[in-house]
Amino acid sequence: MFAVIKTGGKQYRVAADEQITVMSLEGNAGDKVTFSDVLLVEKDGAATIGAPFVAGASVTAEIVEQARGPKVVSFKKRRRKNSKRKRGHRQDLTLVRILEVVAA
Parallel, antiparallel, or unpaired: how do β-strands 19-23 and 10-15 relate? Predict the structure, then answer.
């Protein structure tokens, strides 16, 4: 049994006992999170597709840790102008463990 959920503007295919990395969520390690924006639920080969969400379906997860992604460097240089700019960015991420997928 698996589901497709939407969080942080992205879609993720999840199943029980998986760990996924999503955009930053509120909470500390050990807190429970419920995703109610379920787009699809598949059980025993039969898929239920939502319009836009599956009614009564939810996914429960546990926050494992709050982390940060790799550093991305943006470097711009204008030749012969003695002008350059260097900026770095690290995205805030949350590692979650999927506990259960509940269908309607």
Answer: unpaired
Q: Give the type of residue at 12.
A: Y
For the whole model, what pTM was predicted?
Answer: 0.84
**How far, CA to CA in Å, does 98 sit from each of 29, 46, 51, 65, 88?**
14, 21, 23, 13, 32
pLDDT tens by residue, the chain, 104 residues: 999 999 999 999 999 999 999 999 999 999 999 999 999 999 998 999 999 999 999 999 999 999 999 999 999 999 999 999 999 999 999 999 999 999 87
21: region left, alpha or beta (phi > 0 left; psi from -120 to 50 alpha): beta
Query: Are 61 and 97 spatial neighbours (Cβ–Cβ below 8 Å)?
Result: yes
Tell me the CA distances in angstroms from 89 to 10, 52, 68, 71, one per residue in order.
20, 33, 10, 6
Cα 43–chain centre separation: 22
Domain boundaries, the chain: 2-102
